[in-house]
């Protein structure tokens, strides 16, 4: 009898824990797929990398009006198709781009292999509408970039557009590009087959690829994108390749990281951000933002962000445990805008001094606010104060087991006072930094 009731309660306990475990997994749908060992290792690398360079480059750069120019200016298909014949970026130097990223403290580069205009910036057998076949330049820029990245230890990710304003088989069409004259009707299955072919090339001809960054789902939310097969294909070709899809929704099975565009996780200044409830608790996160106001080169864009703004963006992303992918739109000659190179260098200088508080860090114990961000590594908590108008700062008293508190820059101890609600930190006025004053809290082990 005793044994029977013992077995019964054990069974109930097992059932309870099993269903709890299963429902916890279900909360994060990405867990319906089991990532490979290599993939999990790549995710850890990605989480630690923290900072990457986003590059939007295509034949649209010639018009100097951003990467959406075909849609925005309603450029007819046959007119747009003339652009490749003017694209001759003889000053493009892959090694130079990689050095710029490296000097900025970036660990990876994500480049547009094909954007919504449908033009492939690589050598592809799936379509003649590509850089090798249609431009006087005739060279595959992704090849050069892959070689330079490999040489310099920078990981290469490919942005790949799901949306296409050029191909007839992108049909039925989506919400955008409908006023572009000259588009005909075609077969959706052929379009999916075309994408699979191109993704196979991208994952076969360029060595190890850090990830595939998909974009454009939002154009045709209800379409059958065949993600299951596409994701399986990517993982079969390169198991460590991380898949992210900028669908602005909760992560789907097969995805390995979640991205946030022009908004920190949980914020929604754009109006189309991923809802806060859909932020993955498991996957690596990545926030992307433009260095000025546009993704692709825009001749008239003067909204260059300041060094301080960009560093604070990087810090805020890290405070959410997220990477920061900062975009530049190179010019049609193949050069990155000089003012952007200067900004990137300044971030790199700052990271040389302060990178320890960012790279390989996790979100700290204090949720980010406008004026304060925290990150942590092992038994060190770094509190970044982003406002410079005072010298007594406060953090919540989270019952941290404080061993000592120092100013990160000098490693000199600073005075602090514990109250039941807060920890007051007294920072010498001359140590307050305009961009970021970092206090390091050493915790008892
Ligand atoms: O339409 C694109 C846009 O051109 C750019 O590529 C950004 C990058 O995150 N994503 C899309 C908008 O969501």
Number of separate helices: 11
Strand element count? 16
Q: Which CATH architecture of the largest domain is right? A: Alpha-Beta Barrel
Structural class: alpha/beta
Fourth-level CATH superfamily of the largest domain: Glycosidases
End-to-end separation: 48 Å
What characteristics describe this protein?
445 residues, alpha/beta, TIM Barrel, Immunoglobulin-like, 8-stranded parallel sheet, 5-stranded antiparallel sheet, 11 helices, 16 strands, 29% helix, elongated, binds ligand FHN
Description:
It is built from eleven helices and 16 strands. Helix 5 (94-103) packs across helix 7 (141-152) and helix 5 (94-103) packs across helix 11 (338-354). Mean pLDDT is 93; it is low at 11-30. It has two domains: 34-360, TIM Barrel (Alpha-Beta Barrel); 372-443, Golgi alpha-mannosidase II (Immunoglobulin-like), CATH 2.60.40. The two termini are 48 Å apart. Helix content is 29%, strand content 19%. The chain is of the alpha/beta class and 445 residues long.
Summarize the structure.
The chain is of the alpha/beta class and 445 residues long. It has eleven helices and 16 strands.
Detail the topology: elements first, then pairings.
Elements: H1 2-27, H2 37-49, E1 51-55, H3 69-72, H4 77-80, H5 94-103, E2 108-114, H6 131-134, H7 141-152, E3 155-161, H8 188-202, E4 211-215, H9 227-237, E5 242-245, E6 258-261, E7 285-290, H10 307-319, E8 322-328, H11 338-354, E9 362-363, E10 372-377, E11 380-385, E12 392-396, E13 402-407, E14 415-418, E15 422-426, E16 437-443
Parallel strand pairs: 1-2, 1-8, 2-3, 3-4, 4-5, 6-7, 7-8
Antiparallel strand pairs: 9-10, 10-11, 11-16, 12-15, 13-16, 14-15
The site of ligand FHN has 8 residues, from loops.
